[in-house]
From TrEMBL:
Presence of keyword Hydrolase: no
GO cellular component terms, A-Z: membrane
Gene3D superfamilies per UniProt: Amino acid/polyamine transporter I
Membrane association type: Multi-pass membrane protein
Highest taxon, organism lineage: Bacteria
Organism: Kitasatospora setae (strain ATCC 33774 / DSM 43861 / JCM 3304 / KCC A-0304 / NBRC 14216 / KM-6054) (Streptomyces setae)
UniProt keywords, alphabetically: Membrane, Transmembrane, Transmembrane helix
Transmembrane residue ranges: 37-62, 68-91, 112-136, 148-167, 174-196, 216-239, 251-272, 309-333, 364-387, 393-411, 423-443, 455-474
Protein name per the record: Putative amino acid transporter
Location of this chain's protein in the cell: Membrane
Record InterPro entries: AA-permease/SLC12A_dom, APC_superfamily
Biological processes annotated in GO: transmembrane transport
Length: 496
């Protein structure tokens, strides 16, 4: 696959490949395989952080049905992925959602999506870096008594993530792979300890009683649960750098969604089983937080596992920051290449084939947010993480719903030999489900931010403003340079 020349400029003369195997100005091709993509996606989701930090809140809000909610959410996202991956064969662009919406629903709405995507992914990254500083500072103080400012540790995280983002993308995949394996192993050891002690008594079938999904609190629970899958769509972001993307992107997407749905559901179910369903719900409503998971690890395996998991949740936050940083940088690169952001962002490092300028810009933004958090002395978890990630996750949910509709529109006149279920009914069902969840997220935004009233309104205002700016930019380009507008998102496509 090759990209078109820079929008609005004459084609540049051919240049020899750089050491990374990518011509100057293009991302390095053929470096990422299925396993690498899965690592990027699952590490971004941060399984340990979800099961320790988010699942207890979901249990407290929705009660015993939390495990089933993860399976239902996974099933909805599988429907989304059916059409999303079908379209990935025809649209390969580091600006994934932007390119999909542009091809399916028109370039004006595509540009709007592009600006929303940049804000969403760039907000999530510093939030997760703040969580790294929060967890790391707490652990250091608990173990040594030394007080290290969270922002200093977060700044270190930003710096290391930036360096890894600058280097070959395969190095990031290796780092994420190690972090992910350690996270998953620690959780599997905990679950094994619970099952070895309590046996089938830990597996209460009431959690999968469909009638529980009609009870109060379920709407809020789904808002928390669906956010745990955020980042799975990043498989398409790496399509330009993947080996055989027609196969690797769909395969990695389905593997990632399936793994996360089953792993979250099983982990939540067993954590509840460690205490007994009713007791677990009561404790989650009383205090929530990671102690529910950590106490289960200490009680059924040993203090060593609880201590290990306290360290690994720091590793989990770092891995998530790295994964989202790479995704955010590629959106900046894609929009810089299109001229929707400064064109310098569309330049690639000749040594590594990475989007070097975009990596620097994203790192600078991370440092700015962390620096502001430190200067204002705000809580890194309750403010920097929850506020930034709430807005980012909501933006991604909106883009997922739009992308599902775009898939339907793209295949509406020509299914290209694919089944009606995959490119018609699955996208429509996914779009409906995601739209409902997005509305629920708006009405339950306080669950994501931990705040209410004016703070939430102020957090929600920027996204419509950004969307309006994208619309104005698209209209201006269409009016002043129709040829350039027509070339937006153009890539070479694999034909049947």
């Amino acid at each position: 696959m090759s990209l078109t020349s820079s929008v609005g400029r004459a084609p540049a003369p051919a240049q020899p490949p750089d050491p990374a195997g990518a011509p100057a100005g293009r991302l390095a091709k053929g470096l990422i395989g299925t396993t690498d993509l899965v690592f990027f996606v699952v590490a971004a989701a941060a399984p340990l952080t979800v099961l320790a930090g988010i699942a207890p809140f979901a249990i407290g809000v929705g009660g015993a049905s939390a495990p089933a909610a993860y399976l239902v959410s996974g099933a909805l996202l599988v429907l989304f992925a059916a059409g999303f991956t079908a379209m990935s064969r025809y649209v390969r662009n580091a600006g994934a959602f932007y390119a999909y919406v542009a091809r399916g629903l028109g370039r004006t709405l595509g540009v709007v999506t592009a600006y929303v995507a940049v804000v969403s992914y760039n907000l999530i990254t510093p939030g997760v870096a703040a969580a790294f500083g929060y967890f790391a500072a707490g652990h250091i103080e608990q173990r040594t008594g030394a007080h290290v400012p969270w922002w200093l540790l977060s700044a270190g995280c930003v710096a290391v993530v930036g360096v890894l983002g600058w280097l070959k993308v395969t190095l990031s995949a290796k780092v994420l792979g190690v972090a992910l394996v350690l996270e998953v192993l620690s959780l599997l050891v905990m679950e094994g300890g619970v099952l070895a002690d309590r046996g089938t008594a830990a597996l209460d079938p009431v959690s999968f009683d469909p009638s529980l999904l009609t009870q109060g609190g379920v709407a809020g629970m789904f808002v928390l649960v669906i956010g745990a899958f955020t980042g799975f769509e990043a498989t398409a972001i790496y399509a330009e750098e993947a080996r055989d993307p027609a196969r690797t992107v769909p395969r990695a997407t389905f593997i990632a969604i399936g793994f996360l749905a089953v792993f979250y559901a099983l982990g939540t179910w067993i954590v509840m089983g460690a205490y007994g369903t009713d007791d677990a719900v009561a404790q989650a409503r009383a205090d929530g937080g990671p102690d529910l998971t950590f106490r289960a690890a200490e009680r059924f395996v040993g203090l060593w596992l609880s201590d290990t998991m306290h360290v690994l949740i720091i590793v989990s936050a770092f891995a998530s920051a790295l994964a989202f940083h790479n995704a955010a940088a590629r959106y900046l690169y894609a929009l810089g290449r299109e001229g929707l952001l400064p064109r310098g962002l569309g330049r690639v490092s000749p040594r590594t084939g990475s989007p070097g300028r975009a990596v620097l810009a994203q790192s600078a933004f991370n440092a700015l947010v962390i620096g502001l958090g430190g200067v204002l002395a705000v809580d890194p978890y309750l403010v920097v993480l929850l506020w930034s990630n709430s807005v980012g996750v909501l933006g991604i949910m909106v883009m997922q719903a739009l992308a599902a509709v775009a898939v339907f529109a793209f295949f509406r006149r020509d299914r290209r030999g694919l089944s009606a279920f995959r490119v018609v009914w699955a996208p429509l069902l996914a779009a409906a489900g995601l739209a409902v969840l997005t509305v629920l997220a708006l009405f339950n935004f306080d669950l994501l931010t931990g705040r209410s009233g004016l703070v939430n309104w102020l957090l929600l205002v920027p996204m419509p403003v950004v969307a309006a700016a994208g619309w104005l930019v698209a209209r201006r380009i269409r009016r002043t340079d129709p040829a350039r507008f027509a070339r937006l998102t153009e890539v070479d496509v694999e034909r049947d």
